Amino acid sequence: MGAIAAGIAMFGAAVGGGIGDGIVISKTLEGMVRQPELSGQLRTTMFIGVGLVEAMPIISFVVALMIMNK
User: 25 falls in which pLDDT band (50, 70, 90)?
Assistant: First the structure.
């Protein structure tokens, strides 16, 4: 049962991370098209946002490992 729970947790985190990355990147590109002079600042902010979004699957992986080892 622990392996199934860990798999479901990782699936949800992977899907959530993919959707989150897509939204962050699309909105950044949209902002760059509207205001090209801010592209450097938007890109920096995007990388910070992507890093924060990607933290969720990493934390979920650790939790999944903890569930499997229980």
Answer: very high
Tokens 């979004």 locate to 53
Phi first, then psi, for residue 35 (nearest 5°) are -135, 85
CA dist 34 → 13, 18, 31, 40, 54 (Å):
31, 24, 5, 13, 26
C-alpha 54/C-alpha 30 separation (Å) is: 21
- Reply yes or no on whether the pLDDT at 46 is more than 90: yes
Tokens of 12: 């949800």
The DSSP element (H or E) to which 38 belongs, if any, is none
